[in-house]
Amino acid sequence: MMRALIAGVALLAVTTPVVAKAPPKPDFAQRVQRVEDELAIRRILLDYSFTQDAHDYEGYTALFAKEGEWANGPTVKKGRDAIHKMLIDLYGATPAGYVNNESYHITTNLQVDIDGDRATARSRHLLIMRGPSGQPEPVLAGRYEDQLIREDGAWKILKRIDYPIMPTPEEWGKYIRERRAQQK
């Protein structure tokens, strides 16, 4: 009888599944913080386009962490000063009262993943420029891959990689050179 009881207990131990405890559900405050974080990150990704279009270089560079990085192929700019200089080199100084009536960026398909004080994001971008007859013309499409960090209590871009898709970087360079030649 004792042997049967021991065998039964051993069999029960072998055949009883071990149930893992589910991770605790985030409380209300944690869920609200996550929503606030995602909204703040989405706002940064959209403000990137708005500040670029407005030639608001200070606003643009303020979106980056102190040691933030912007990359496109072999071109890498690290730190706010280097990123600011890149904008001046690209667009020139912004005249007082500047209003951009020549181009605008559209940022779409935002996907944000948050892990504590770090996050990653992916998005798509489209640049619309004034065509030869004044009509809007899509001229550049690509994607962004971002790493973000909470710095001094605010979300900032730690690293942004810009991947042009259409046209290719080579084709885009040719387009810009031709457009600049027409404007002279």
Number of domains: 1
Spatial order of the strands forming the largest sheet: 2-1-6-5-4-3
CATH fold group: Nuclear Transport Factor 2, Chain: A
CATH architecture: Roll
- Please outline the major beta sheet: 6 strands, mixed
Oligomer: single chain
List low-pLDDT spans: none
- Tally of separate helices: 5
Order of helices and strands: HHHEEHEEEEH
Q: Report how far apart the termini are.
A: 103 Å
Q: Fraction of residues in helices? A: 25-40%
Keywords: Signal
Signal peptide: 1-20
InterPro entries: NTF2-like_dom_sf (IPR032710), SnoaL-like (IPR037401)
Domain SnoaL-like: 33-160
Can you walk through the features of this model?
It comes from Sphingobium nicotianae. Residues 1-20 form the signal peptide. The chain has 184 residues and is an alpha+beta fold. The chain has helices spanning 2-15, 28-53, 57-62, 80-91, 169-183, and strands at residues 64-72, 75-78, 103-115, 118-130, 136-151, 154-166. It has one domain (27-183): Nuclear Transport Factor 2, Chain: A, CATH 3.10.450. A hairpin with a 2-residue loop joins strand 3 (103-115) and strand 4. The longest helix has 26 residues, at 28-53. The chain is elongated, with a radius of gyration of 26 Å.
Sequence-ordered SSE layout with sheet pairings:
Layout: H1 2-15, H2 28-53, H3 57-62, E1 64-72, E2 75-78, H4 80-91, E3 103-115, E4 118-130, E5 136-151, E6 154-166, H5 169-183
Parallel strand pairs: 1-6
Antiparallel strand pairs: 1-2, 3-4, 4-5, 5-6
